[in-house]
Amino acid sequence: MLNFEVILAAILAYLLGSIPTAVWVGKRYFKLDIRNHGSGNAGATNTIRVLGLKAGIPVLLFDVFKAWLAVSLSIWLNNPEFSDNQHTIYQIILGGLAVLGHVYPVFARFRGGKGVASLVGIVIFLYPAPFLFILVFFTLMMIFTRIVSLSSITSAIIFPLEAIFIFGVESVPLIILAICIAVFVPFTHRENMKRLLNGTEKKFDFGKNRLK
Description:
Blueprint: H1 4-17, H2 21-30, H3 44-51, H4 53-76, H5 84-103, H6 116-126, H7 128-145, H8 148-165, H9 172-188, H10 190-198
């Protein structure tokens, strides 16, 4: 049965996810709406491409943190009657609401990012050891390909495999979530996948001049 704390946590999780970090940073410090530049995506990758690392890294870190914080609400706002499985499902729902808020932010007319950074926040909280493995994999992919979308997609696809077969994750809700992540990330990168197949996806260039 849902109690007041659980309902409050769900609302707060969505509102946390809805904080449009990239949009607010762009408007506050650069007088532009990041959604009207670059890929049009209100996320860290587009922020780095358009505005540079000094703007993009804080956006990335906060987008990760807000989802991590949303899941951690389960510690302070909980239903003591939840079983272990129910508590895990509760944490997943809070994380999902944060991602939903990131993709459809109420504070930015429901035009947000793709949710990858927010997914990272959930993974850090729920899968700390598998996260370190996938972080190394993503970093190596970026070094060799310099394509963010390809690195994100391949990391998401192998995530449930390494979580289950390397780290032995046995929780059914966590296994289902890992599989959902492997589906969700490619789905949100459909246009990128088309460009990858066409050979037109841009490589990331840290040395490129940004907007001032």
